[in-house]
Structure formats: C-alpha cells, structure tokens
Write a structure and sequence with these properties.
Blueprint lengths: L6 E5 L2 E6 L14 E3 L17 E3 L2 E7 L5 H5 L4 H10 L1 E4 L8 E6 L2 H19 L6 E6 L3 H18 L17 E7 L4 H23 L4 E10 L9 E8 L5 H16 L12 E6 L18 H6 L6 H6 L4 E7 L1 E6 L11 E6 L2
Helix pairs in contact: 2-3, 5-6
C-alpha cells in the first residue's frame, strides 16, 4: 500500500484512513489491523456527533451496542488490541462476557479520549464485519408450483440433451423449492440487528414501495437463460432472466431503492450500481454444497471459485436461449435466512414487506 495514499473507509457519512501494521502471523489466530481515525490531538477537530458521550462524576463515558460475535476483534489476541486501544486513548473499555449480548462501555477522564476510542472501534468493527459470511439476504421467492414444474422440465431436458458436455450433471441444478431473486446480502449477527432490518423494510414499504407497486403484486415473466462469466465453455453460474410483463421497470426500481436504503443504513454493503435481477438455475457451487448461496461480490469467496469445476454451457445456451419458465406474481420482499428452510422448502423468513 502507498503510505501517501492510505485506504479510506466510509462510516456514517464520514471518512477515515486505515493504517496497516506489520505483525507476525500466528496459526489459528485472527489477523489484526490497526485503525487510526485521528491522531492524539485531532479529536477536537472531528465532528463527533455520530454518537452520545455522557459526562459522569469521574469523567466521560460512551455506550455502544456490538453483536457478541464481534467482541473478539476488539479484544484481540491475548487481549492485545483492547490493551492497545485503552493505552493509546487513555480509556477503559468494558466488554460483556463472550456470547452474552450487551453494551460495550468506554470510560475515560477526557472526552477526546472516549471519542477517539469509540471511533477506532467503529472503524475496526466495520472492517471485520465485511469479512463475515453473510447470514441473510433480501429476496423475491420464485418457487410457485408452475415455475417449479417448468424448472424441472428444463432440468430434465438439459440432462437429456447436454449431459455429455463437460461438467454437466444433475448436481449443478438449484433446488426448485428455493428458486428466487437475490437483491442483496446482509450480515446480521444478533436479534437486534434482525429487528432493525425488519423495521427498515417496513419504512421502505411506506416511503416508496407502495407507491411504485400500487398496492398490487407485480406480474413477472421468467424466460431465457444467460451465464455470469466471460467464457460460456467455462460456466460457473447459469441464470434465468426476469422482466416485468407490462414492460415497465418497476421491479428494478423497487430492487435498486431497497438496496440503496439498506446500504445507507449500514446493514448492507454496496456491491453494484444497480441490482442484477437473476434467478440462478445452475451453479457449480452446488456440486459440493446443495445449500450454497452465491454472494454478489467478486471480492469474497475467492477460494471457492478456485475449487470450482466449471461446465461447458455452450449447448445449453444455444438450445435453451428462450426457454419459458413461466409467469409469477411477486407480492413480497423477504428477509431470508441463509442455510434454512420453512415448511414449503423455501428459506426461512425473518421478516417481509408485502405489496398489498
């Protein structure tokens, strides 16, 4: 990294620089990164109104809600990260016991020290949160019986006509009960964060979804197939294309605005300028894990891409270019839980936004 051009991280509309430190790497230990939101004398210049600092009899304190799975990143290997933060900011950081949800409390004699500690923890956690595997995703369910029937017909015909093509096998196909459109992925690490996401969904319904959808389900057609990567002879993901039956862009508008609001709230990472609406029908990740779910981020899961055995999709694309999977009424956006199933076989729903 060019020391004159450090990596910048945006949190809550503010920009911080990220300084990497060299360290020994210990097997089975978490990597540590040193973040500096401000120098020792810079806090007075910070617009530190993003959180509340209370004055107490002994000085100042700040409380922050942090999901318990992230405590270890504040504590660090053998408590070194926590000790360094306390020493450099002249504060005391109280963290609940592992696995116990609660507030982290930062106390200190000087307001600037408490602000510095809080800011550094925010930047530290933001970085490590991005490394967590996603737990939930916003989705439109496409698993209506008519679509499932056509999908199974597609699978049968592909295996009948293209099974001799390199890498093509039945293990590549999506579970018909889990056919869906993914809008974006989320890392929700406790019940409070899940509740926050559910509440934001309802605000989106009131703010713009009802107006765009008109209080009625959206009629969508699923037709044609396309591939994700550059070479159809080395395909990893084959997906069905979707479009509004009336030719409008209402589905795209709802998807883009939902993602925009979730990104702005900090619950979702921005991955693309606009949502790529697609329904995965074949995926090489399914070879080893039928419950695998592709993240729409090329920066994650690099090792899984290396381990994939691609398939030759040229004949499939030629023969099924215009395959018609059917028409479907979309009446809700679901906050779906990864690696789960409900009574219908679809992903368990933590919350949802309905159009009617």
């Amino acid at each position: 990294m060019d020391v004159l051009r450090p990596t910048l991280i945006r949190i809550g509309g503010r920009v911080y620089r990220k300084n990497l430190i060299q360290e020994q790497v210990y097997q089975h230990e978490e990597e540590e990164e040193n973040f500096c939101a401000a120098g020792p004398g810079d806090c007075a210049d910070e617009p530190c109104d993003a959180f509340v600092v209370e004055e107490t009899e002994k000085g100042f304190q700040c409380r922050m809600e942090v999901p318990s799975p992230l405590y270890k990143y504040i504590i660090g290997k053998k408590g070194e990260t926590k000790k360094r933060l306390e020493t450099e900011t002249r504060t005391s950081i109280s963290i609940p016991k592992p696995g116990v949800e609660g507030e982290i409390v930062i106390t200190g004699q000087h307001r600037s020290g408490v602000i510095s500690a809080r800011t550094r923890i925010d930047v530290l956690l933001d970085s490590f949160r991005k490394k967590q595997p996603f737990t939930h995703f916003l989705s439109f369910a496409l698993n209506q019986p008519a679509i499932q029937e056509k999908f199974l017909q597609f699978k049968e015909e592909v295996l009948e006509k293209c099974s001799k093509d390199h890498g093509v096998s039945s293990s590549l196909f999506q579970n018909p009960s889990k056919l869906h459109l993914t809008l974006g992925t989320l890392v929700l690490l406790n019940e409070q964060e899940i509740q926050k996401a559910c509440e934001l969904l309802q605000r989106c319904k009131e703010d713009f979804v009802d107006q765009i959808a008109g209080g009625k389900p959206l009629t969508v057609e699923v037709a044609g197939v396309e591939y994700m990567n550059d070479d159809p002879a080395m395909t990893d993901v084959l997906y069905a294309k979707v479009h509004m039956k009336d030719g409008s862009d209402r589905l795209q508008l709802i998807a883009d605005q939902l993602v925009e609001r979730f990104v702005a709230s900090g619950l979702m990472l921005k991955e693309w300028d606009r949502v790529k609406l697609h329904a995965t029908v074949m995926n090489t990740l399914f070879r080893k894990d039928p419950s695998a779910e592709e993240r729409n981020n090329t920066m994650t899961g690099k090792s899984s891409f290396k381990e994939r055995e691609s398939f030759n999709g040229r004949n499939i694309l030629k023969l099924f270019e215009n395959f018609y999977f059917g028409e479907v009424q979309l009446d809700s956006v679901r906050l779906s839980q990864r690696f789960s199933s409900d009574a219908s076989g679809y992903y368990a729903t933590s919350g949802q936004l309905t159009f009617s």
